[in-house]
Amino acid sequence: SMQCFPGLVLALSSLLGALALLQLSLYLRVPSPYGKHEERLCRPRSRLPARCAWFLQELPSFLVPALLLALRSPPRLEPLGCRLLCCLFCWHYFYRTFIYPFFTRGRPFPLQLLFFGMLFCIYNGFLQGYYLIYCAEYPNDWCTDIRFTSGLLLFLLGMGINIHSDLLLRQLRKPGEVTYKIPQGGLFTYVSGANYFGEIVEWFGFAIATWSLPAFAFAFFTLCCIGPRAYHHHRYYLKTFTDYPKSRKALIPFVF
């Protein structure tokens, strides 16, 4: 049976933080080349349909923790706080794997980015799952701790914003359309990257609820990965649409 190695958790979490800074340095000035920022010279055969690509990319983040749990003998069922935290992570990726891809209307996705996305999901799925299933130790009353309750509320709020914003984005296009329009409604009233803002809030909530280095490293990575993308989306909208609301911020309402 697999054992907990705290040194491994520290090393993998530190590497995740370093990857976050690398991601920030690569895409702060130039957006990652997919969606509205895709490279025009990208050959059709080097891309996959968006639905298939998102399914394949997100699947490891659901399967790897599930596999780790299945391999643990005896199964990790206690304490309740630990079980709930593991469920939160898997719940997010169940949605991203089995629900979100079948409704998305995005453009075909570059295979190179899909490959790196899958590698990241395997890596992070292992880190979060391994820590929660084999290493984490919580008191029996963790469910009533202010860190768990406040983190859980933030997680649910962020996930709600993320799902609602994705729904609003889908409604902008009719089936078969690939043109971009100005998002309206919900948190899009205040920020250009409402869906990204929701996901960042979600993972910082998860980090607070778990109060663990792996989860904080992942939240930091999320901020460094999709924060710049929200900024580039904002610039794209301002450049493309002359009637784009000037009061909207890129990512954080009333601030940035």
From TrEMBL:
Q: Which residues form a coiled coil?
A: none
Where is the 3-oxo-5-alpha-steroid 4-dehydrogenase C-terminal domain positioned along the sequence?
108-256
Name the predominant localization. endoplasmic reticulum
Concerning InterPro entries, the annotation shows: 3-oxo-5-alpha-steroid_4-DH, 3-oxo-5_a-steroid_4-DH_C, SRD5A/TECR
Which keywords are on file for this protein?
Differentiation, Endoplasmic reticulum, Lipid metabolism, Membrane, Microsome, NADP, Oxidoreductase, Sexual differentiation, Transmembrane, Transmembrane helix
Record-level GO cellular component terms: endoplasmic reticulum membrane
One Gene Ontology term of the biological-process aspect is: sex differentiation
Q: Could you tell me which Pfam families the record lists for this protein?
A: Steroid_dh
User: What would be an example GO MF term here?
Assistant: 3-oxo-5-alpha-steroid 4-dehydrogenase (NADP+) activity
* Record Gene3D superfamilies: 1.20.120.1630
**Does Cell wall biogenesis/degradation show up as a keyword for this record?**
no
**The organism sits in which domain of life?**
Eukaryota
Family per UniProt?
A: Belongs to the steroid 5-alpha reductase family.
Relate the protein's function as given in its record. Converts testosterone (T) into 5-alpha-dihydrotestosterone (DHT) and progesterone or corticosterone into their corresponding 5-alpha-3-oxosteroids. It plays a central role in sexual differentiation and androgen physiology.
PANTHER family recorded: 3-OXO-5-ALPHA-STEROID 4-DEHYDROGENASE, 3-OXO-5-ALPHA-STEROID 4-DEHYDROGENASE 2
Protein known as: 3-oxo-5-alpha-steroid 4-dehydrogenase 2
User: What organism, scientifically named, is this protein from?
Assistant: Cephalopterus ornatus (Amazonian umbrellabird)
Record gene name: Srd5a2
